[in-house]
Design goal:
Elements lengths: L1 E7 L3 E8 L1 H17 L13 H7 L2 H24 L4 E7 L10 E9 L22 H14 L2 E4 L10 E9 L11 E6 L9 H7 L7 E8 L2 E16 L8 H5 L4 H21 L1
Antiparallel strand pairs: 1-2, 2-4, 3-4, 5-9, 6-7, 6-9, 8-9
């Protein structure tokens, strides 16, 4: 392999690289043997397949694809070693010819590098300090939010509907003329959340205290007209809080104890508050 430097600037350096056909032939055979050693063909043990069969199975395209990586790595290592520039950090190829077994292989290799910076008089630079602190209460609030995210939805078989439950219903809704309102007819699920302000607010209020199997009726307003809903409670689901003993801290947070998680969350809160101060 031969190479020559063709261009150099403050950010990159370029080399023309040439592998003579004799070296390509040698590398081609080695790459073929490497692919052959891991090729499985029915009726033969791995590594014992006759070469005549392998030559029919292994395509030139497969050899070329692997050979490009081999030659690139070989070129990279040689140039880095001989040039001795530790700041060369990125590499890519340009203007490459096709690899052919009986011809020289030419391409351009471009290195990018990070030159050694020249520092000015940084000692005179004044940096504004930021008074940022994190309270225990903030950390506990953050941990509670995390704990809430692990809460599980459980079915309520014999209890009454409470705020924040999710209720599955079978509804039948008709307008003032007795016509079916399809949007509110059939199976549906609603959250018993008083903060939701929509047409079904009267239904949410009517459902509070009901059990599975019970029915409710109420009126709702649709486009300034009154519609009547009949709804049967099919199921009730309620979010049950988890405890830290139920959570695998190592699997979910890569920490071994709750104290480690607290310290990690405190640092996250601190960094977020510091970022806000700086911005």
């Amino acid at each position: 392999m031969d190479y020559s430097k063709t261009y150099e600037s403050s950010t990159k350096v370029e080399f023309n690289v040439m592998f003579p056909k004799e070296e390509i032939e040698k590398e081609w055979k080695q790459t073929f043997d490497a692919i052959a050693s891991r090729t499985n063909i029915a009726g033969f043990r791995k590594g014992k397949v006759p070469k005549a069969i392998l030559e029919k199975v292994i395509k030139d395209e497969d050899i070329i694809e692997s050979l490009k990586e081999v030659l690139l790595r070989k070129t990279f290592n040689k140039i880095k070693e001989e040039q001795g520039d530790k700041n060369l950090y990125n590499v890519f190829k340009e203007d490459e010819s096709e690899i052919q077994r009986d011809k020289d292989y030419n391409f351009k290799m471009v290195f990018e590098y990070w030159p050694d910076p020249e520092l000015g008089d940084y000692r005179s630079i004044k940096v504004k300090g930021h008074n940022v602190s994190v309270s225990d209460e903030e950390v506990e609030n953050q941990l509670n939010l995390i704990l809430q995210s692990f809460a599980k939805w459980n079915s309520v078989e014999d209890g009454e509907i409470q705020l924040k439950d999710v209720v599955e219903l079978t509804m039948e809704t008709k307008d003032e003329n007795g016509n079916e309102v399809k949007e509110y007819t059939g199976k549906s699920a609603i959250s018993i959340n008083p903060d939701i302000k929509d047409r079904l607010k009267p239904l949410r209020e009517a459902l509070l205290g009901k059990k599975v199997g019970e029915e409710v009726e109420c009126d709702i307003e649709i486009e300034s007209k009154i519609a009547h809903i009949k709804a049967k409670v099919d199921s009730i689901r309620r979010k049950e809080a988890s405890s830290w003993s139920d959570i695998d801290l190592q699997a979910n947070f890569q920490v071994n104890s709750l104290d480690e998680l607290k310290a990690e969350q405190k640092n996250i809160i601190f960094m977020n508050k510091l970022k806000e101060e700086v911005e």
